[in-house]
């Protein structure tokens, strides 16, 4: 017997889509965001103060999905792994981040802030 799973067969996939939102909380300047994975380049996005940039993706079954981003404002360029499956995958499928000058913070039951890379 062969079992087929996926959207074309009316059954949910093993790994639901993950939604990720980043809010520009730099205190004024426009934030330029450029996120990529090994297989996907999401392009460059300009995010005004107090607004969001959002994307969705399907994590792989090996729990190795990684999205890394560069963040630019004023004369600064910072980098951060905005989704790292070993770190994030067990936290659900909706991620909200606030981007601040001293680093990104993952919002949820507990706020967890990280240093820039």
Structure at a glance:
The protein is mostly beta strands and 117 residues long.
When the domains are counted, the total is: 1
Q: Helix and strand string, N-terminal first? A: EEEEEEHEEE
What is the arithmetic mean of pLDDT? 90
User: Helix count?
Assistant: 1
The general outline is globular
Biggest sheet: strands side by side, in what order? Answer: 4-1-7-8-9
Classify the fold: give the CATH topology.
Immunoglobulin-like
Low-confidence segments: 1-11
Proportion of residues in helical segments: under 10%
Q: CATH class, please?
A: Mainly Beta
Structural class: mainly beta
Descriptive notes:
The chain is mainly β and 117 residues long. It has one domain: Immunoglobulins (Immunoglobulin-like, Sandwich). It is built from one helix and nine strands; from the N terminus they run ββββββαβββ. The chain has one helix spanning 85-88; strands at residues 18-24, 31-36, 41-47, 52-57, 66-73, 76-84, 94-100, 103-107, 112-113. The chain has a five-stranded mixed β-sheet, with no helix packed on it. It has a four-stranded antiparallel β-sheet with strand order 3-2-5-6. The longest helix is centred in the C-terminal third of the chain and has 4 residues, at 85-88. The chain is globular. The N and C termini lie far apart (48 Å). Mean pLDDT is 90; it is low at 1-11.
